[in-house]
Structures are given as structure tokens and as C-alpha cells.
Amino acid sequence: MENFEIRFLAQDEMDGMVPFVELLNQGMETSLIKSRLEEMKQLSFYKCLGAFDGERLVAICGVWEMTKFYSGKQIEIDNFMIYPEYRSQGLGKKIMNYLYDYAKQRDCLSVELNAYVGAPKAHKFYFREGFHIKGFHMEIGL
């Protein structure tokens, strides 16, 4: 496996997330992604982890730090995306280990995520990591 640098993106690097979010959310307007990202950048409890192959950003993972009644202090990961040509090389596991260590350093009790229903490969990866289904994520558009 190649030597990947894994670190949190500086705020001025976060625009590099846009192509990943476009791949994950096909059909979402780029302008909407950029607008939401600008809002997220302003939140003190949101960060984005990135993996680099040299200068190239090849994976991202959003990280929300929060406290919830049912779980206590935790990080919630979202928009975890690795470019297809970098998958199945151990990078996903390396990123998850980085996240687990980060969560422990922040005194978090758990790591939570939501995965799209139509993403069976992602489900398989998360189950291998030891995640279990705790409930349903539901929403209603307004």
C-alpha cells in the first residue's frame, strides 16, 4: 500500500470536497453543494478529514463532533468517499483507524454514521469495521 497522508483539511482546502460530494450525491447541483459547504465551514463542530496521495486529495470524510442523549459525546462521520482507483488498498481501514484515535483523544464514547440504503459495498465495509444498525434514519422534506 502506498504512503498516504491523512489529516484534517484546512478551511481553504475544503473546496476540494466538492467533486467527492458530487459523486456521492449524483444529480445535486454543484452550486447547492458549494453553498452548503460554505455554511458548514462556519460551524466549530464540523471538520473534514482528507487522505492525500502526494498532493492529490483521494479521499474525504466529514466529521461532526457532538453530544447526544442516547450516545453521549461522539463523532458522526459522513460523506466518506474514496476515489474508486484507491479502493481495496487498505486506505479505508487506515482512515477509520485515524478517526477512532481522534475520537478517543476527544473523549468520545462512540463513532456514528448514516449510510445510503443503496450502498451495499459501503454497508459491507462498515459491518467489517464492527458497526451495527441501531435504528432508522428518517427525514421529511419541507
Please give a structural write-up:
With 142 residues, this protein is an alpha+beta fold. It has a single domain, classed as Aminopeptidase (3-Layer(aba) Sandwich). Helices cover 31% and strands 28% of the residues. It has a five-stranded mixed β-sheet, with helices on both faces. The longest helix has 15 residues, at 91-105. It is globular and about 40 Å long. The termini are far apart. The relative contact order is 0.15. The model has no long low-confidence stretch (mean pLDDT 94).
Structural class: alpha+beta
CATH superfamily: Gcn5-related N-acetyltransferase (GNAT)
Tell me the radius of gyration: 15 Å
Our count of helices gives 4
The termini sit apart by 45 Å
Per CATH, the architecture is 3-Layer(aba) Sandwich
| Uncertain segments | none
Sequence of secondary-structure elements: EHHEEEHEH
Question: Beta fraction of the residues?
Answer: 25-35%
The overall number of domains is 1
CATH topology: Aminopeptidase
Q: Which class in CATH terms? A: Alpha Beta
The biggest beta sheet is recorded as:
5 strands, mixed
Mean pLDDT, rounded to whole units? 94
Strand order of the largest sheet: 1-2-3-4-5
Q: Could you estimate the helical fraction of the residues in percent? A: 25-40%
Q: What oligomeric state do the depicted chains represent?
A: single chain
